[in-house]
Amino acid sequence: MFDPSSLWDVLALIGVVAAIAPWFGGYLGRVYMNRPMAGDAILTPIESGIYRILGTSRQKSMRATEYFVALMVVNGITWGFLYVWFACQPSLPWDATGAPGMSWSLALHSASSFVTNTDFTHFTNESQLSLGSLVIAWPLALFVSAASGLSVMAAMVRGFVHRDGTLGNFYVDMVRTVTRLLLPLAIVFAVILVILGVPQTFTNTVTAYPLTGGTQTIYLGPVASFTSISLLGTNGGGFYSANAASPLANPTAISNLFEVFVMMLIPFSAPFAFGHIVRRRSEAWPYAGTIFIVFAVALGLFIAYQLAANPALVSVPGLGPQIGGYPVGQETRFSLPEGSLFQVVSVYANVGANNMQIGALAPVSQLVLLFGMFTQSTPGGEGTGFGMLLLFAILGIFVGGLMVGRTPEYLGKKVGTGHVRWATLALLSHPAAILVPFAVAILGGFVTVYSGSLPATAHTFTSVLYEFASESANNGSALVAGGSSSFNDTTPFFNVAGAAVMLVGRFVPIYAMLRIGGMFSEQPSLPPGPGTLKTASATFTIYITLFLIIVTVLLFLPVIAMGPLAQIVGGG
Fewer CB atoms inside 10 A, N or C side of the chain? Predict the structure, then answer.
């Protein structure tokens, strides 16, 4: 329910993140520019040993295509390992509960989901995953996918400071991401989660004896460590099918706020890492401003429409008069602002963890979440989210330069048609990856749209749209109602189509980001002139914010009108 005093908890947490982000972004910048930092005496020899095993060194710098190939090799090996593990679970270690091997299409979807930082599941964790999958296979992908996204961001941004056509070394970036960032933070955060009541054990199950009689099997495992890296790496896959709504994974209001902090830390710090790498720290503020503006508006709308009467629930017997919002779809252990903060942060940072039942939310609240996945950049997922925001900025700078009759340039590098083509490809690949399989699913009869009221039909429409939007954005959250999807997404069609959407949504933009960074790296740095656009300004912040919103709305307005807006018009 709505507790006005809990708004102070929400505002305080956002304030803490805003205060820490510039410092932590500076730390990220030092990591990716190989600048001296604490821990070098211990970690540098370890990292050098890993580089020797990999046959590389810190001195070797890669061009865009070579960087991408190295990334695909690592991710491809990880994908193959996951596929084999999931298909052969009964023959592999730690399958005490007898989890079956996955079908070829489900293993395909699951491996693609985890390697793309999506973690969208078409299975029930408690009955279809072995403890070995939760301890060995899936956690490997949690680290690899997060490290890949952050490495790509660093490589793209280094294009603004390099002048030799190279972007750095993927293997070095990935190793340093794990040793200097993900692994130490995941350990610290896991310890804190244990203190807050999240279990951490290798015991598979325990039997409880409720007061009402009978027995209940409770699934356990290394929940704290899994939750830590899944949230820190913006992966979002839950140890339990109920995800963060489970009292074992998220036991109290304090753990809920802490988990929100974990999700926000890296994505909201990315702009400041950018400013540190390019050695122009003031350039970080327009991007940070855009992220906070869009996020704040989204959170405000979400809370407001969850607090307002839901037209679909007004006539439901037994609900009684509305006082402070219907608790439908909400985990009632948390207040409405606290639960809303978790859900909006999770979707806008492309984490995908849930502590609400999204299909039961108000249509406008569903639309707010969809918009976050449509932009992918406010703040977006680990590394790639800020990369998408840079793509919007590059297009905006190019358009702005044409409007004033000046040669577009940014940070001393000219923005040409090549940059625009790759940025456009990355931005258009997102709606294409969503709308093509969406049309096939609807028109091909893979989804049954029951003829009935407009809200019911529009809800099914929104459910399918949300599925593919979540997969293309590498988000992983799902729109469900009543404990089950409004359509069956466990079929071979949705497994195969979903896998293709996730792979396209992940690696096409990544390649475009690297190509753009490579083109910038080949250019000499130019001194600012009288026609140089002043990007470190409030005006540029407003311009980029409006440009991002307008472009996103234009790309997705038709399906928004037929889905969430139709539910609103129809009273659903």
Answer: N
In DSSP terms, 217 is beta-bridged to 207
Nearest Cα to Cα of residue 25 among 380, 268, 307, 188: 268
Going from the C-alpha of 566 to that of each of 316, 423, 460, 570, the distances in angstroms are 20, 32, 11, 6
Nearest to 279 by CA among 149, 152, 411: 411
376: which residues sit within 8 A by CB, 6+ positions away?
350, 384, 385, 388, 430, 473
Q: Taking Cα atoms as reference points, which of 294, 244, 251 lies closest to residue 271?
A: 294
Contact 230, 119 (CB under 8 A): yes
pLDDT, mean of residues 223-239: 93
Count of alpha carbons within 13 angstroms of residue 313, beta-carbon side: 19
Q: Which of 442, 506, 510 has its CA nearest to residue 474? A: 506
Structure tokens that stand for 348 in this block: 């806008």
The DSSP-derived string for 544-556 is HHHHHHHHHHHHH
Of 326, 373, 359, 374, nearest to 572 by C-alpha is: 359
Residue 482 has pLDDT above 70, yes or no: no
Confidence band (pLDDT; 50, 70, 90) for 219?
confident
C-alpha dihedral over 430, 435, 438, 444, to 10 degrees? -140
- In degrees and rounded to multiples of 5, residue 129 shows phi and psi of -120, 135
Task: Name residue 374's amino acid.
Answer: F
Do 571 and 455 contact (CB within 8 A), yes or no? yes
Q: Is residue 196 within 8 Å of 255, Cβ to Cβ? A: yes
Nearest to 231 by CA among 202, 206, 262: 262
Structure tokens at 453: 């009221």
* Residues written for the chain: 572
Query: Do 290 and 548 contact (CB within 8 A), yes or no?
Result: yes
- First-to-last alpha carbon distance for the chain, in angstroms, is 21
Query: Span 392-397, mean pLDDT?
Result: 96
Burial class (CB in 10 A: 0-12, 13-18, 19+), 532: middle
d(CA 457, CA 567) in angstroms, rounded, equals 8
455 vs 169, higher pLDDT: 169
Strands 409-410 and 216-219: unpaired
Predicted confidence (pLDDT) at residue 328 exceeds the cutoff of 70: no
Bridge partners (DSSP) of residue 218 are: 206
What average pLDDT does this structure show over 311-330?
Answer: 61
Indicate if the pLDDT at residue 532 is higher than 80. Answer: no
- DSSP secondary structure letter of residue 17: H
Q: Which two tokens stand for residue 42?
A: 């211990």
CA nearest neighbour of 203 among 88, 94, 91, 98: 94
| Contact indicator for 368, 374 with CB cutoff of 8 Å | no
pTM over 0.90, yes/no? yes
d(CA 516, CA 394): 10
Q: Number of helices (H) and strands (E), helices first, in the chain? A: 20, 4
* pLDDT for the residue 322: 57
- Flag the least confident range among 7-16, 184-193, 202-211, 480-489: 480-489
220-to-101, 202, 231, 238, 240 alpha-carbon distances in Å: 20, 8, 19, 13, 9
Average pLDDT over residues 485-502: 89
